[in-house]
Amino acid sequence: MAVSTTKETEAPEVPGGARHRPVIESRSIDYVPLAERHGKVWHLFPVWFAGDAHLATIATGAIGVALGGNLIWTAIAIVLGNALGTFFMAFHSTQGPQLGLPQMVQSRPQFGFVGALLVWIVALVTYIGYTAFNQVLVGSTMDHLADTPPSVSYIAYAVIGIVLAVVGYDFIHKASRWLTYLTGAGLAVFSVGIVVVAPFSADQLDLSAFTLAPFLIQLFHAAVYQLSWSIYVSDYSRYLPPTVGVRSSFWWTYLGAGFGGAWMMLVGAVAAGLFPKLGLVDAVVSAGDQLFSGFGVVLLLLSVIPLFTIGTLNFYGGSLTLLSSIDSVKRIPLTLGTRIATLVVLGVVSTALAFSANDDFLTTFGDFLIVLGYLFTPWTAVNLIDFYVVRRGRYSIREIFNPRGIYGRWNWRGLTAYGVGFVSMLPFAVIGDMEGPLAHWVKGADVTMLVGLAVSSLLYLMLCRSLDIDAERAVIASADAGLDPDHAGHQADTGHHA
């Protein structure tokens, strides 16, 4: 499978594929044949814009101000952090059209058929944790707006997310487009209005009032927040044909996630800057009311509605990851029934976690997500270096699903690079009040992402020097022969063996 770099950006509708797609998605972790590929590459923009444009993103943007930074430097940190973290996330998106596989299944060539369980378990914890986190946010918001008992919101959130995830890929894309139009319009009104009203103090806009620690902490929180999407991203591009190319799928993802994330984080920074003594929900409402009375509630609702979209993404991606994990231990039929069963399991666990949340849950969970960010940074490095530098996009789809295949059960190269990369981050780690021994060098800012990316990438490259790529490609050509018999001509043109 060679990476296609054609500039074509529109995916042709395939006879027998796009016109006759079932309402409920039937596939899960299995390969999407070329005959079923469909969609337009620009559809990636609204998926990731809507995926980022919600209340949890607002909370991330308020961190710098809460730590004592002023508004202008917090805004700069938010923009730079989003630009950095989304860069790596968007490169994962391009893997979907090239391989036709969900994101986490693609870890098997780097870590092994069983070894990939290491990152899948971390991914599952992330999916469940984020879902519970969002359930708590929705519960507290609906309690604030309509006196709805949080328990009702928790259950409703899970049920809606599971139902939408069952419908699957196409519905997620369509819903994301409508949400992008809706939230984009609301954000535009707020952004223009708040500038016109201009309620900011001179101190909040003073470029000379730079404080290093809040700036760096905000920058890297924004970057890691965007990087955390890496475990999802090609799940929602894998039905596109490889002819969309790497450049177009990268940029539509990068712009969607980058704009959605940065814009929503800036709303959080503005709300925190204007009303530093209020809680998140009250600050958002008060900031919106600066334009005119009642707009604050509208702004809050516009930030809550997309939480249901991200809930669907979490359930959908979590189901694919749970199925991948089970498949590594015991082969199971990849049916709609098994997909629904995994969704229900995820819903029950996340809802139970939300019900058990106490007053310190959001703070404690925020620290927990930092640890998960540490765990995914070396995975991102290994996965991207393998795809773009070592194997250059050439993989065997059949061997990825073969427990005794060319990728092995345990891949010592990927596991070693991952482990060493993670350990190298710990001296710089900052988790709540705990700091690694070298964190004081950077004034308590969390730069572990840069350390982990660099160490894991360089070590994996060095370890792969002994990998016989030519012999592997000969096996790939034989193993995947006839996988897409109706599109043999296309395979010959692009080198896409899947």
UniProtKB/TrEMBL annotation:
Topology in membrane: Multi-pass membrane protein
GO MF annotation terms:
transmembrane transporter activity
Compartment annotation = Membrane
Q: Which GO terms describe its cellular component?
A: plasma membrane
> Which segments cross the bilayer?
44-65, 71-91, 111-133, 153-172, 179-201, 207-229, 250-275, 295-316, 336-356, 368-389, 410-432, 444-463
- Which keywords describe this protein according to UniProt? Membrane, Transmembrane, Transmembrane helix, Transport
List the Pfam families.
Answer: Transp_cyt_pur (PF02133)
- InterPro entries in the record: Pur-cyt_permease (IPR001248), Pur-cyt_permease_Fcy2/21/22 (IPR026030)
Which Gene3D superfamilies would you find in this protein's record? Answer: Hydantoin permease (1.10.4160.10)
Instruction: Spell out the family assignment given in the record's similarity comment.
Output: Belongs to the purine-cytosine permease (2.A.39) family.
Q: What is this protein called?
A: Permease for cytosine/purines uracil thiamine allantoin
